[in-house]
Amino acid sequence: VDPGFKVGIERPFLIIQKSKIRKNGKLKFNRLQFLNTLNLGYYYTKEQNHSPFLNMEIGYRKIRKSGFKTEAFLGLGYMRTILTDETYKVDNNGNVSKIDFAGSNYFMPSLSFGIGYDNSYRNDHFPFSVSLKPNIFFRLPYNHSVLTNIGMELNLSYQIGSFRSKSKQIFKSK
Questions:
Q1: Where is pLDDT greater, at 15 or 70?
Q2: Residue 108 or 174, more confident
């Protein structure tokens, strides 16, 4: 297990509010969000490397009337690994010199799915949500190939009102 963190900002660019009366007479109500994110993160692999990264994601989220939510994200990013041990190079004359911040640069596509609870649906005065997001991300090129990494995120978020108000909203009812 490699510890790490990710902080970011997300912004819905489209919100669709759907309501429908079921055959039993109860009202079914869902909120669909299409959003983008910008994240800065870091994780540490013991005795190997430090791995800061920057990524952007585009995603889809469905929030039910109860506050239960499901979501999926597709991302693209950049990762820089920095080796934890000292690294040296030898030039053509046989001189040895230390390399500062030795490591590699990677293109980092990702895919994640999540489930959670969004309190803002029931309580607009405390717009807090929590979700669990298993994800998979790739580092390439990695030794002329692709390295697959699997991660698990515990996502805690607080919605800022001014961000929500600038989203395009569509209301549908049947």
A1: 70
A2: 108
Q: Give the Cα separation of 61 and 121 in Å (integer).
A: 13
Judged against a pLDDT cut of 70, whether residue 165 lies above it is answered with: no
Q: How far apart are the first and last CA of the chain?
A: 48
C-alpha to C-alpha distances, 143 to 10, 54, 113, 169, nearest whole angstrom: 33, 21, 28, 46
Give CA–CA dist 5/41, Å, rounded. Answer: 6
Rounded alpha-carbon distances, angstroms, from residue 33 to 57, 107, 112: 14, 27, 16
CA atoms within 13 A on the CB side of 10: 22
Tokens 């991302």 belong to residue: 75
Asked which of 14-28, 130-144, 157-171 is least confident by mean pLDDT, the reply is 157-171
Distance (Å, whole) CA 61 – CA 135 = 15
